[in-house]
Design a protein that fits this description.
- The protein has about 260 residues and is α/β, with parallel strands linked by helices.
- The chain has a single domain, classed as Stationary-phase Survival Protein Sure Homolog, Chain: A, CATH 3.40.1210.
- The protein is built from seven helices and eleven strands.
- The strands form two sheets. It has a nine-stranded mixed β-sheet with strand order 3-4-2-1-5-6-7-11-8.
- A hairpin with a 2-residue loop joins β3 and β4.
- The radius of gyration is 20 Å and the shape is globular.
């Protein structure tokens, strides 16, 4: 019998290299092959697809429990994927999979645009590597067990079947015990947006500062949409691509008087 194939997998996140979700993800994928961890040195939530251009990018080995764990990067999640591929790997070897997470908090609907977790998976797809982002849809509970188990299952599916070029998956897991998860839904991205407000406060020196708050409104009552599927107790899996062109509007736009 032939030996089992061992894969090369990059694991990253936006919650930082010390995050429990990252550890849970690494552990869940560990026996699939060689796991490379490259993650932000500190939390980088909601930085979107920002990359570092005007400052040097610092990278160092990070130890945990007395041994090498991965590389910490003083940069964004997209930075992590880029520097891992072009510098730490030196472009000589390609990963079989990029996995970003497990994020603490949902990344559904408009959150996908802001999310550093999703952006790391986007960067993987840009590099031509099958990728997915996975999030636990809560800021309170910290049991990543169900999400980690599903990440392992999905990783095996992707490694066996692949993904279309330029497409990656965005996964959101309800914060429920495994027996209460109703199943898995393949979903669309919700178009619900936030009704936002800024709380105006004073610091100890009486200087004004602003703190963003708000809640998502207009979530459709439709289990084929990511926001609602998670709320209804389903694991949501949404195929995403980074081509932002609105093809339906192309023909109409061509009729506009744009030439001088």
């Amino acid at each position: 019998m032939g030996s089992k194939k061992r894969y090369h997998i990059l694991v990253t996140n936006d919650d930082g290299i010390t995050a429990r979700g990252l550890q849970a993800l690494r552990d869940a994928l560990a026996d699939l092959g060689e796991i490379m961890v490259v993650a932000p040195a500190t939390e980088m939530s909601a930085v979107g697809h920002a990359i570092t251009l005007s400052d040097p990018l610092r990278v160092w080995s990070f130890e945990k429990n007395g041994g090498f764990f991965g590389y910490a990067v003083k940069g964004t999640p997209a930075d992590c994927v880029k520097v891992a591929y072009w510098a730490l790997l030196n472009g000589k070897r390609k990963w079989d999979l990029v996995v970003s997470g497990i994020n603490h908090g949902a990344n559904t609907g408009i959150d996908i645009i802001y999310s550093g977790t999703v952006s790391a998976a986007t960067e993987g797809a840009i590099l031509g590597v099958p990728s997915f982002a996975i999030s636990l849809a809560t800021f309170e509970k910290k049991d990543f067990g169900v999400a980690a188990k599903f990440a392992r299952q999905l990783a095996e599916e992707i490694l066996a079947k692949g993904l279309p070029k330029g497409v990656f998956l965005n996964v959101n897991v309800p914060p429920l015990p495994e027996e209460e998860i109703r199943g898995v839904r393949v979903t669309k991205q919700s178009r619900a947006v936030y009704e936002e407000r800024y709380e105006i406060r004073k610091d100890p020196r009486n200087r004004t500062y602003y703190w963003l708050a708000g809640e998502k409104v207009g979530i459709p009552q439709d289990e084929t949409v990511d926001d609602y599927a998670v709320k209804a107790g389903y694991i949501s899996v949404t195929p995403i691509h980074f081509d932002l062109t609105n093809y339906a509007f192309l023909s109409e736009l061509e009729t506009w008087r744009l030439s001088r």
